[in-house]
Amino acid sequence: MKFGTKVIHAGIEPDPVTGAVMTPIYQTSTYAQESPGQHKGYAYARGHNKTRNVLQANLAALENGQFAFCFGSGMAATSTVMQLLNPGDEIISTDDLYGGSYRVFTKVFERFGLKYQFVNMDSMEELEKRITPATKMFWVETPTNPMLNIIDIVAVCNLAKKYGIKVCVDNTFASPYLQNPLDLGADIVVHSATKYLGGHSDLVHGCIIVNDKETADNVYFLQNAVGAVPGPQDCFLLLRGIKTLHLRVERACQNAKKVAEFLLTHPKVDKIYYPGFESHKGHEIAKAQMRDFGAMVTFNLKDDTFEAAAKVMENVEYFTCAESLGGVESLIGHPASMTHASIPRENRLKVGLTDSLIRLSIGVEDVEDLIEDLQKALDA
């Protein structure tokens, strides 16, 4: 089954009772039992909900996985992965990552005995030097947020297998349409499904996809025991959004390439971070492990100040100044004061996240309007 068919059909059948083509919203918290412990596979909605189960089957197919689990947010999914570990275990994470992930790692899970190293994952030789007997997981984002670095998933997984280390890839920026980490050797994939999977900025959702039955059993135990599950309405909305995933991401990638090329020509722009450029250090890796280069573009200004970045963002019309990404509408954000404010400034600067850095999530509008909008804002 090809991807465009998967988003419409994988795991989805007409409702057996009514023939409804769209999966119904099973808005119930509990289910009738014929006798104590005798039921139709559903006892309480924290453990199972039919709308959620259909969505999970669909998500597993999109990532070429065997098992998928849905959560109330991307951070709930991330936290569940951390709960697979034990006090004293160490996680080596990329040093350029979503601020919310950094925050929950350092402010929550370190208090419960997990240890973290944040490192540049460009060099496998350097990464190998950071491994200790306590290292149990590599946490990978690629493309990274917000610097759009590309990490070689195959190389990381090969190194991990040498030491018996699990690899978890946050695939939010790429989406399953552009990249499938399980196929490249990863053990766990997580998404903030709020972003490209949902695609319409109208829900908050997260998911985990795995192939290993033991890991799946442990994730399901945590999903049910901790209970950070999404409601059926959000599962329905996500199923609806996924049906156009390939169309939306394809168009957004086309737009992003043209926006990035425009930024190259503007005299007030300093550096542009976009893996579709041959000059990008991760371009060849991205070309090998992704189907396109994504719809995120990051750049900083020659006037490297917050004030300059704020002025640009105050003068756009079609770009919306907001957090998040991956919707049909184009968004513009300032990572240092928005999505990555929880990371200490000195840490941000080490990875190139300057005070003037601007992150664009390119949507599906007519690209000529987006370029004109940026032109006016930069000229202002």
Care to give the gist of this entry?
The protein is of the alpha/beta class and 380 residues long. The protein contains 13 helices and 12 strands.
Notes on the structure:
With 380 residues, the chain is of the alpha/beta class. The chain folds into 2 domains: 232 residues, Type I PLP-dependent aspartate aminotransferase-like (Major domain) (Aspartate Aminotransferase, domain 2), CATH 3.40.640; 135 residues, Aspartate Aminotransferase, domain 1 (Alpha-Beta Complex), CATH 3.90.1150. Helix content is 36%, strand content 15%. The protein contains 13 helices and 12 strands. It has a 7-stranded mixed β-sheet with strand order 1-7-6-5-4-2-3, sandwiched between helices. Helix 4 links the parallel strand 2 and strand 3. Helix 2 runs parallel beside helix 8 and helix 3 runs parallel beside helix 4.
Keywords summarizing the entry:
380 residues; alpha/beta; Aspartate Aminotransferase, domain 2; Aspartate Aminotransferase, domain 1; five-stranded mixed sheet
Task: Say what the CATH topology of the largest domain is.
Answer: Aspartate Aminotransferase, domain 2
Q: Report the major sheet.
A: 7 strands, mixed
Number of strands: 12
Class by helix and strand content? alpha/beta
Q: What general outline do the C-alpha atoms trace?
A: globular
* CATH class category name of the largest domain: Alpha Beta
CA-atom Rg in angstroms: 21 Å
How do the SSEs run, as a string of H and E?
Answer: HHEHEHEHEHEEEHHHEHEHEEHEH
User: How many alpha or pi helices?
Assistant: 13
Can you tell me the CATH superfamily of the largest domain? Type I PLP-dependent aspartate aminotransferase-like (Major domain)
Strand content: 15-25%
Low-confidence stretches: none
- How many separate structural domains? 2
**What is the end-to-end distance?**
49 Å
Strand order of the largest sheet: 1-7-6-5-4-2-3
Overall pLDDT level: 97
